Amino acid sequence: MKNFFPKRDRFTEVRPYQQTVLTALLWFTCSAVLCYASLHFYLGARWLAVAELCLVAYAALLLYVLHETGRAPASNLMFVLPFFCVMMLSLWTEKTGVMVFVWVFLVPLLSHLLLGRWQGLWVALVFIGCAGAIFVYKYGIWGGWIGYVSVANVLLCTASILGFSYIYETSREKTESELRALALADPLTGLANRSRFRDVFARERQRYLRNETPLAMLVVDLDHFKRVNDDYGHDAGDMALCFVAELLASRIRQTDVAGRLGGEEFGILLSDVDLVHARQIAEDLRDLIQDRAFRYRGKDIPLSASIGIAELGRDGMDFRTLFSKADRRLYQAKAEGRNRVVG
C-alpha cells in the first residue's frame, strides 16, 4: 500500500512538547542564570556575568513572545545555541571551578528534547567536544590510576546519557509517526481517511491559486455493494473494500491521493490533471475494477464502480462544492445504469 503521509520537517518545526520544554528552560534561564550572573559579577567574572544577563534578557523576550502569540520560535536553535555558548563561556572562565562541568550532562538531554534526533545529536556532540577541550586546556589529564579512572567515569557517563537520550528520541519519533499515520488513515483499507483527504485538497488548492495547477476529484462508489455483504457476509465485504483500495492505489501516481470517504465510497485527487485526462484515468480505473474479479473462498465475486468527476475551478473552488458536484455526477452515473463515468 502506498504511503500517503509525507515526513515532517524535523529541522524547522517546533512540536508542542518541545515548546513546553523550551518554556521551562526559558523560566530556568530567567531565574537560575540571573542568580549565577549576580554571583559571577561579585566574584569578578564580569564578562561572563554580562553574557549571562544578555541571555536572561533574550529568554525574557522569548517568554513574552510566547505569552503574547502562543508560538515558539521557528527553530529551537534560536535559543539552544546561545544557551550552550554561554555555558561554554562559563566553563572557560578562570573564576569558575571544576564542578561547573557537571552542567555538561544537560547538553545531550536538552539537545534531543528540543531539537529532535539528528539535529540534537550533532549539536550535543559539538558542545560536548568543546567542553572536553576546555577541560583539558584548563586542568590537563590527571596522571595516575585515580586520574585515569575519574576521566573514564566522566566519559562513560556522558556517552551513556548521550546514547540513552538518542535512543529515547528515536523511539519517541517512531511512535509519533505511527500514531499520526493511524490518525490520518482509514483503519480498514489503509488509504487516507476523509480528514486527510480534505487536508491534501487544501494543499492542492493553494497550488492552484499560486500556479493554476489543474486538480481533478474523482468520487468512486461500488455498485450493488450491499449484495456482497448480504450474500457472502461482512467479512467478504471488508476484504472486497481492501481489494478495491489496492487496485486504486496501484494505478495512481505518487503525486495523487486515494482515500476512503465512507462505506464503499472512495475519493481520488489527481494533481496536475484536467477534466479530459481525468476522464481517461477514471475509465481505466472503472475497467480495472470490472475486469479484476474479487476472489473470496474460491469464488469470483464480480465488482463494478460508478465514478463522478469534478475539476477545481471549473466546478467549484472549495471542497464542499467540488465534492458535491462530483457526487451528483456519481449518482447520475448510477441513474444511467451504473458501471460508468460521468464528468
Textual characterization of the structure:
There is one protein chain. With 343 residues, the protein is of the alpha+beta class. It folds into two domains: 16-183, no CATH class; 194-342, Alpha-Beta Plaits (2-Layer Sandwich), CATH 3.30.70. It is 64% helix and 10% strand. The strands form two sheets. The chain has a five-stranded mixed sheet, with helices on both faces. A hairpin with a 2-residue loop joins strand 4 and strand 5 (299-301). 33% of the residues are buried. Residues 1-12 have low confidence and may be disordered.
Topology, element by element:
Elements: H1 16-43, H2 46-69, H3 77-92, H4 106-115, H5 117-139, H6 144-184, H7 194-211, E1 215-222, H8 225-232, H9 234-250, E2 257-262, E3 265-271, H10 275-291, E4 294-296, E5 299-301, E6 305-311, H11 319-335, E7 341-342
Parallel strand pairs: 6-7
Antiparallel strand pairs: 1-3, 1-6, 2-3, 4-5
Helix pairs in contact: 1-2, 1-4, 2-3, 3-5, 4-5, 4-6, 5-6, 8-9
Strand order of the largest sheet: 2-3-1-6-7
Number of domains: 2
Share of residues in helices: 55-70%
What characteristic shape results from the CA principal axes?
A: elongated
**Residue-averaged pLDDT:** 87
Gist?
With 343 residues, the protein is α+β, with helices and mostly antiparallel strands. 64% of the residues lie in helices and 10% in strands. The strands form 2 sheets. A 5-stranded mixed β-sheet has the order 2-3-1-6-7, with helices on both faces. It has a two-stranded antiparallel sheet with strand order 4-5.
